C-alpha cells in the first residue's frame, strides 16, 4: 500500500509523473544556475542583470514547489535531491568563475529556450493524461517565455 | 587582472575563501534536502514538520545568498552549480520516495549537527583570517543550532 | 425577458449551468462540514488539523463565490440557499458531537476525493460547452487535489 | 467522560448551550441567504447592495465562528452541518432566481429584525446563565442592529 | 535578423499574433472609453458607476500590458500607438459631453458584449496555434464576462 | 493627597482594586509559566504546542497591561514586581527542566481552569463595585476559556 | 410613519435616546476643545501634550460616530449640528488664545472627569432601557477613564 | 511678549490671519454637517451618499488641522471652540431629523459652493499678504471643487 | 441647463477649459507611446529603460485623471476618446516595430520637451483665468521636467 | 555642449539656479546640525526633543533631494559636497559637546528663522524666473514655518 | 539520556549555561520592573517616560526569549519561573506605589548600569566557552547601553 | 561632572571614542558624496547607478546614526557638524559638475576601499578597547565591502 493514492488511472499517472519530475529538475537546476550567474556576473550591466536574475530564481523556486507538490498530490514522489538534479539537469550551465554580463545574457536565453522547448512537448503529453497538470505547465511556459524575451531583448544588436 | 580585487592579503584570503565555499555547498544542499523532505513527508505530524521544513529552507537559502555574496565581495568566485553541490555535499541526504515523519526528524537532527560541527571549525579558522566572515558564520551557527534544537525536541522520548 | 442574458448558446448553457450549480452545492457543503470539524475536533493533533481545516474552508468559500458569480455571468441564477445545500449535498458529512482527529482526517480525504471525482467529470463536459468555465473547474480541482494529498499524508501508516 | 468539560454548572450550561446553538443556526443561515442575494440581485442599486451584502456575510461568518467556538469552550458541541442549518433555520429566505434590489432590501430588513428579536430574548436568558456568553450576544446584536438600520434607511419612502 | 526570435513556427505565429494585436486594440480602446465615461457620467447613480468604471479600466490596462508582453515574448511587435488604437477600435464608443448614467450602463453592456464575442472567436483560433496564448484569452474572457454581468444586472427592469 | 484620584467611591474602590491586583498577578504569573513551557517542552507535539503557548503568553501580557492600567485609571497603584508575583501567584507552575508535551497540556488546562474560576468570582464582585472593570474581566474570561478548550481538546482520549 | 423604526419599546427608547444624544454632544464638544488645545498649547511640554491631545480627539471622534449610528440604528435621529453642540455642551472649555501646557493638563482632567460622571449616570439608566447601548457606554467610559488618568498623572506634584 | 512670534509683517499678518480663521470655521462646520447628513440620510441612495459624505468629512477635518496649524505657525491663535464655530458658521446647515437623499445632495452642493466662493476671495487677498497661505487655500479649493462636482453630477436631471 | 455648472465666469472658463483639454490629450497620448516603447524596446539598456518608462506611464495616467476631473469640476466635459487622442496628439510618436534603446531615449527627451513647452504656455494663460488649475499644471510640469532630465542624463555623451 | 540642457532661458536660469543651490546648502547644513543636536542633547526633555529633531532632519533631507534634482532638471549641477556645505552654510550651528535641551530649542528656532527669511526672498526672485521652482520653495517654507512654531511653542515662558 | 543533547563540550557548556541563565533572570526581572514603572509613574514627564519604558520592556522580553532559546539550543533548560526570577533577581527594584518621574529615571539608570556590568563579565567568560553565545551577549549589551544613555541624558543637570 | 558617564575605563574609552568619531566623519562624508554623485551622474548607466547610489547613502546615513549614538552611549560626544565633516573627511570626493557614469563607478570603488581600510584598522584597535563597538564596526565593514564589490563588478573590463 502506498502512502498517498492517486486520483489518476495508471498510464495517465505515469506520463504525468514523468512530465512533472522532468520539469522539477529543470526548475531546480535553473534556480541554481540563476543564482550562480547572480553572484559571478561582472560588466557594465552588472546591477541590472544581477536584479533580473533574482526574478528568474524566484520564478523557478516558486514553480518548483508547485510542480513537486502537484506530483505528491497525484501520489507520485518528487525527487529534487542534489545528486538527482546534477545527474539529470539538461539545460546550459555557466562555466566556473566570473561571468561577463553579455555571456550571462546569452546563457539565460539558451537555457530558457531549452526549458521552453521541453515544456511545450510536455503540454502535448499531459493534454491526454491530466488537464490539471497541463494547465500548470501552460502557466509556467508563459512565465519562462516572458523571461526569455526580456533577456533576448537585452541582447541586441547581436552577431547573427 | 581579476574582475574583483580583494581587501584581504593572500593567505587569509585562501582560508576565508575555502570556509565560504564549503559553507555555500552545505547550505545549498541543505535547502534541496529540506525541500525534498517537505514534499515527501508522510505521517501524523505531516503538517507540523512540513511547515517547519520551510523555515529551514528559508534560512538555508537566505544564508547561502549572503555567504556567496561575501565570497564575491572578497574577490573569490562562489560555485553553487548543480554538479558542484552534488559532488561536494557532505551532509546526510534522504532516501528516495515517501519519508515517515519520524525519519525526517532524525535526518534533520543529523544533517544540522554535521553542518554545525563543520561551521564551528570554520569559526576557528576565520578568527585569524577574516573577522568579518567569522561574524557571519557565528550568526549562521546560531540559526542552525536553534533549528537543531527544535527538531531534537520533537524527537523525544527516543531510543537510546 | 430575463434580467441577465447569456453569451452562450442554449445547449451549452444548460450543461455549463448544471456543472456550476452542482459545484456550488459541493463547495458550500464542504465549507459547512469543514467548519463543523474545525469546531468539534479533539485529539493530540487538535491544533494542527484545526488550522488546516480553515484553509479548506477558505478555499471552499472563495471558489463558491467565483463559481456562483460565473453562473450569474452566464445568465444562470445560482442557488445556494440552506435547503438547496442540504437536500443536494452529496459528499460525506460528519456525525454529531466531538470528532476524534483521526476520524476528521479520514472524513476529509473521503469528502475531497468525492468532490474531485465529480469535478473531473464536469471538466470533460465543459470542454465542449464552455472553455472559460472549464478553466475555472481545472483550477479548483488543483486546489482540492492539493488539500486531499495533505490530509492523506497525515493518515499514514493506515490500515489497508 | 466527555472530551471537553465545562466551567459552567449544569442548568446554566443547558440554557447557554441552547442560546449559542440557535444563534449559530441563525448566523450560518444568514450567511447563506446573504450570499444568495449577493449573487442574484438585479436592478439600479445592484452594485451598492451587492457590496453591502458582503458586509452582512462577513459579519455573519465571523460571529458564527466566535459563537461556535464559545460553545466548544463551554464543553458543548456546536452543530452547523448542512441538514441542521436547513431544518432549523427560522429567518426569511429569498425565493429562487433573480431578485429585484427592492425585494432584497425588504428581505434583509425582515431577516435581520427576526434575528435581533431572537437575540434579545437570549440576552435575557444568558444574564442568569453565563455573563460571558451574554456579552458576546450583546456585541452581535449591536452589529445586526446597525446592519438593519442601513437596509431600512435604503427603504424610504416606503408604502405603509 | 529580428531582435526577438519566436518559439512558435510560422503559421501558428501569424494567427496568434493577430489574435493578440486585435485584443490589444480592444483593451486599450476599452480603457479610454471607460475613463471617458468615468469623467462624464451624471445622474443619481453617478458615484456607484463612476467607481465601477475604474474597475473596468484597471482590468483593461492590466490585461493590455499582459497581452502586449505576450506578443513581444513570441517575437511579435505589439502596436498600441494612438493612431492604431483610433483607426482599428471596433467597440461602441460614447458620444461627446455629459453622459446620463443609464446610457453609460447600456454602453458598457454593449461594448463588453462585442469584446467577448470577438474573444471567443480568438479562443477557437489559438486552440490550434498556441495553448499558452489561449489560456491568457480565457482568463481575460472570464473577467470581461463578469464585468458585463454586473452592468447588465444594473440595467433592470429594461425595455425589451 | 494622592497622585491620581478616583472616580469610584471608597468601598467600591477597594473591592475593585483587589479584583484587579489579583488578576494582574495571575496574568503575569501565567505569562512567565507560559514562556517556561514554551522553552522547555519536548515530545512529538513540540512545534504545535510551542507555538500555541506563545498565544497564551501574548494574551496574558496584553491583558496584564490593560488590567494594570485600569487599576491606575481608578487611582489604585498596581503591583507587578518580581517578589509580588512570586509570593502571590496561586496557579499551577511547571517543575524544573524539560517538560513532556503531554505534561504541558495538562498543566495549561489546570492553570487556566484555576484562573477562570477565580475570574468568575471577581465578575460577581465587580458587578456591584464597577461595571467598567467587570466588562474587562468578562472579555478576559472569554479569552482564557477559549484557550482552556483548545488545550483540553488536545488532551483526548485521556485517562479518567 | 418614520423612516427608521425601532427595535425598542417606547419608554426604553426615549431614555436610551437621551443618553445617546447627550453623549454625542459631549464627544463632539470634546473633539473640538481637544483640537483647540492641540493647536494653542505652549510651554516645555508642548510636543508631548500636543500628541496626547490627538489621541483624545481620535477617541472622541470615533466614539461620536459609533454613538450617533447607535441612535440611528434604534430609529432616533442624532443631532450633531454646530448650534446643537454649542448650546448643549456642558464640559469645561478653554479660554481664547495661547494656552500654557499646565492649564491644558488641568482642563483635560476636569473635562474628562465631568464627561465620566455623566456617563456613569447613563450606564445606570441604560441598564434598564437597553443593554446593547449600555455596553457601548461602558467601553467609552473605560477609554475616557484611561485618558483622565494619563493627564492627571502628568499633573504631579500639584497644589492641593 | 507673545508665545509665538510671526515671520510676517503686521498688515499682511492680520489679513492672512482672518483668511485662515474664517476658513477654519467653514471647515469645522462642514465636518459637523457632513457627519449630521452621514447619520440622518434616508432613501435609495443611502449607502452611496453615506460613504461619500465621509470623504467630505475627512477632507474637512484634515484641512482644518492644516489651516489651524498654519495660523499657529504665523503666531496667530486659531479658534475652533464650539461656540465660535456655531456663531460664525455661514454655510447651509441641514434641518433636524431624517434627511431624504436628494435633500442631502442639494445641501452639499450649496454648502460647498458657498465655501468655494469664500475661498476664491481669500485666494485674492492672500496673494498679497502671504503666498504660502495662498498655496494652501488653492489646494483646499481644488479639493472642494472636486467634491462639489461629484455631488452635482449626482443631481441630474434636476428641476431648473 | 447643463449637468454641472461652473464656479468660473465665462471667458476664464473657456481659456481654462482649453488648457485642460489640450493637456489631457498630451497625457493620454504620452501614456500610450510610453507603453509602446515599454513593450518594443531592445538593446543593452532594455531592462533599465523598460522600467523607467513605466514611471512615465504612471505619471501620465495619474495626471490625466486629475486633469480630466479638474475639467469636470469646472463644468467642462473632458474628451479622451480614442479618435480625439489620435487626431489631436501633437508630441513625437515612435515608429512601428522594435525600437533600439538609444532611439527610445531620444524619443522621450523630445516628447517630454514638447509637452513641457506647451505646459509652460498654459501656466501663463491660467495665471489669469484660474489659479487652481495653474497650480495643477505647475506640479505636472515639475514631474515632466524631472523625467526629461533623467532621460537626457542617460543620453550622454551624445552627438551634437 | 552640456550634458543636460535647460528648458529655461538664460537670465531666468541663473537666478533660479542660485536660489536652488543656496537652498540646498541650507538644507544639507540643517540636516547635519539637526542630527548633531539629536545626538548631543541632554536634559529633562531629552526624549521629546530628540524625536522632534529627527522630523526636522527627515524634512531637510527629503527637500534637499527634491531641490537638488530640481536643479539638475533645469540643467544646473547642484553642489552638496562636504567642503561646499561647510564653507557656505550660513545658519546657526551648535557648539561642540553636550547640549542642554533649552539651548537646542533656542538654536532650532534661530536656525529655522534664518532659513525661512532667506527662503522668502527666493520666493520673490523665482516668481519672475521660474514658477515651478517657486512652488517648490513655497511648500518647503510651509514645512519649515511649521517646525519653527513647534520649537518656539516649546520655548515658553521665555526671557524677553 | 537527556531530551536535548549539546553541541558544546562539558566545561564550556557549564560556563555558557550559567551566563545564559543569569542573563535570563536579569531580563525577565527588568521586563517586570519596567512595566511596574510604566504603570506607576507620575510627574510632568509622565507620557514621555511612560512610552520610553515600553521600549525597555520590549527589548527585555525579546532578548529574554532569544537567551532562553539559546540555552535550550545548547541542551540547557532555562528557568524563568516566578519564584526563580524573584529569588535571583539582583538589579534595583522600585518601591511600592506611585513613582515620581525623576525617581524612575534614576532607577532605570541604576538598573541598566548593573545589568551592563554583569553582562560585560559574561562577555569575557563566553569568549572562551562559546563564541556564538558571546555574540548574542554583545548585541544585548549594545541595546542596554543605548537605553542607559537615553535615561541618563534625561537626568541632567543632576546633583553630583 | 559630565552629562553622560561611561561604562568603559579611561584608556579604552579614548581609543574607542576616536574610532567612532573617525568612522562618523567617514560615513557622513560618504553620504554627502553619494548624493552628489546621485544628482550629477550622466551617461548610459545613469538610472542604474543613480539608484545604486541611494543604497550607499541609506547605508551611510543609517550607520552614521548608530555610530554616533554608540559614542553618546559611552559618554563621548559625537561631532558631525558641517565644518567638522569638511575638515576631517579623508576619502575621495567628486569634482564639481556633471559626472560621467564610469567616473562615478571609479570614485565609489576608491572611496569605499579607503573607508574599508580605515575600518579594518579600527576593528583591530577596538578588539582590545570595546568588543561591543568592534562588533558594530564589523557589521559596517561587511556592508561596505558588499557595496565595493558591486561597484567594482560594474567596472569590467577595465584598463589595468
UniProtKB/TrEMBL annotation, chains A, B, C, D, E, F, G, H, I, J, K, L:
The Ferritin/DPS domain, residue ranges: 18-153
One Gene Ontology term of the molecular function aspect: ferric iron binding
Pfam family, one: Ferritin
Sequence similarity: Belongs to the Dps family.
Protein's recorded name: DNA starvation/stationary phase protection protein
InterPro entries: DPS_DNA-bd (IPR002177), Ferritin-like (IPR012347), Ferritin-like_SF (IPR009078), Ferritin_DPS_dom (IPR008331)
Amino acid at each position: 500500500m502506498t502512502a498517498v493514492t492517486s486520483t489518476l488511472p495508471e498510464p495517465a499517472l505515469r506520463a504525468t509523473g514523468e512530465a512533472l519530475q522532468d520539469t522539477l529538475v529543470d526548475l531546480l537546476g535553473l534556480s541554481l544556475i540563476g543564482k550562480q550567474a547572480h553572484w559571478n556576473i561582472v560588466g557594465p550591466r552588472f546591477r541590472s542583470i544581477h536584479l533580473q536574475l533574482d526574478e528568474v530564481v524566484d520564478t523557478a523556486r516558486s514553480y518548483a514547489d508547485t510542480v513537486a507538490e502537484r506530483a505528491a498530490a497525484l501520489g507520485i514522489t518528487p525527487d529534487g535531491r542534489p545528486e538527482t538534479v546534477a545527474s539529470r539537469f539538461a539545460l546550459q550551465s555557466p562555466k566556473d568563475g566570473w561571468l561577463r554580463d553579455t555571456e550571462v545574457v546569452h546563457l539565460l536565453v539558451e537555457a530558457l529556450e531549452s526549458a521552453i522547448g521541453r515544456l511545450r512537448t510536455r503540454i502535448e503529453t499531459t493534454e491526454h493524461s491530466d488537464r490539471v497538470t497541463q494547465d500548470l505547465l501552460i502557466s509556467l511556459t508563459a512565465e519562462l517565455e516572458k523571461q526569455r524575451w526580456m533577456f533576448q531583448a537585452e541582447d541586441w544588436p547581436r552577431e547573427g
